[in-house]
User: Fold this.
Amino acid sequence: MKYDLAIIGGGPAGYSAALEAIQYGLQVIVFECDQLGGTCLNRGCVPTKYLEHTGSLYQQMVHGMERGIMVDGSSLDYGQTLTGMNQRVRELRDGLRDLFERSGIRYVDQLAEVRMNEPGESFTIICKGEEYEADHVLIAAGSVPKESPVAGVPDIGCLLSMNELPHKVKIIGGGVTAVEFANILRMLGTEVTMCLRSGRILKKWDRELAVSVEQLLKKRGICIRTDCTPEDLASKEEDTLILSAVGRKANRMGTTELDLDEDEQGAILTDPDGCTNIPNIYAAGDVVSGSPMLAHTAMEQGKRIARKIAGRDPGNVSAAAKCIYLDPDIVSVGLTEAEAKSQGYEVVTGKQNMRSNAAAIILTDDRCFIKLTADRKERRLLGVQMMCMHAVELAGEFVLAINQKIDIEDLAGILHPHPSCSEAVTDAVDALIKKL
Assistant:
């Protein structure tokens, strides 16, 4: 059978593209050599957020006495925690597989390799000795962990399959993954040391957010060592497990035979619509050069490509929220203050410290704030940096404001419930308006 669209990869970009394309009557086949749902569902976003929530609940029990809650003999059964985590992951994966079947999407759980035919002809996909034909190909193979700077050190994702928590862990890296795992492990009772080659954690994030996160982690008992030498990274104390969290790189399995334009790291170069240099071959998600490696961005890219192939308007590229799940959440949408200045905007900022917000004071003792960055000339929002409870849930409001170029005054008119953390949005907007 010949397909309209063959998708290499069943992660967020791949399954979103498939489910979008099938709505327009396209015949779709998806190849995935690992597990449907990709890294996000099976080893990334979903299981780690389950652990983060479990750790948060555990800490609430441990410190419940501060709020008058007496819990005697509280302890953590990590094996039971993993059982619950794996059950949720399996439910979501099975649900996705069932959705494929009900939608008429062909799914092949084997490694596939894309081959070029003569110009203007369809593509051949070889999988497990069989050949499949498709008019269009979407490469959505995701990413894989970068090699550790210390030989023999495993990727931090191996924690998700350990039956017991290590007593001491040394994490190499200071990015989002390193920060989230460090926080999870510490909340679950592990002693954690982070070792960075750079001068600070989250070096690609707004400096104020990064400093605030570092203070939060140290407050929770995590040791952070910066400017580490190769010898520092490799040194190991007794009974300490060293794990690597130094980022990810594009997964090019099954597409290396294609003469695709790529960057120095091997990620695929595309235009804003996901088109590669080869007609009718597209790429989306982590495999794309410059990808923020966010599941929701990958989903949007996959859907836009599916619409383009179907002859529909792919839609505009949306602003994306970058999130760190720490309790309180860390969120960045749009431009930081430094980025906006470097792009020539006449920058104005408005900030609300949430110690005056009733909901925030009820929920946490940690420092929280919302900082808005706007353009004075056009009086519109350019970006937001948040460190507060439920910030992830607040992000959509700012994505909409940036996408639609909503006037700052219109933002001020949104009525938020009381008491709620969302009230701080209005306060931050008011602070911004006073400077415009």
